[in-house]
Amino acid sequence: MNRPLPPAALPILSSLSAHWGWLLARGIAAILFGVLAYAWPGLTVLTLALVWGAYAIVDGAFALIYGARGGGSRRWSYVFVGVIGVIAGLVAFFWPGETAIILVMIIGFWALAVGVFEIVYAIQYRHAIAHPWAVGLSGLLSVALGFFVVMHPGAGALSLIWLIASFAILYGILMIVASLQLRRWHNAHSRGV
């Protein structure tokens, strides 16, 4: 359903849609991480720390670049999420031998922070973006994962790996859907349609 956009929303949507590729890259990275986590059935917590650390660094870097290149007043939130992702990834990547509980808590708090920012973004820009439901749903998914992981850090390693892998794949799909909707809007409006 296409609803008319407020005139003030058009410059915001134009700026966001011009950078749809960064959102697509984040979605692809999330799906790759999820598939790798499923593909290694003997994955240990140490290996999960390394794989997740690499994913968090890549995702954080994409968010940082998007925030630095994107326009608008909300670019600081992408920079903040990017910094959190890179720091959490570096901690998990360079200290993977730490206890599993610390890794679980890092993943949980990272998911909570990313989810809250995505929900706020979806609510604030619901009239200006073509994909508020996808971003909001991915934010809710992140918050749910983060809350579960923080509340149950002692969950079995295998169930935690499957939970995180499932989250990553669903999150990635939602980010790809959102990016393709932004791309479609950008292509339609850059041609003057």
TrEMBL record:
Transmembrane region(s): 20-40, 46-66, 78-95, 101-121, 133-154, 160-182
Record's keyword terms, sorted: Membrane, Transmembrane, Transmembrane helix
GO CC list: plasma membrane
Keyword Ribonucleoprotein: no
Alphabetized Pfam families for the sequence: DUF308
Taxonomy, superkingdom: Bacteria
PANTHER family per record: PROTEIN HDED (PTHR34989:SF1)
Listed name of the protein: HdeD family acid-resistance protein
Organism: Paraburkholderia caffeinitolerans
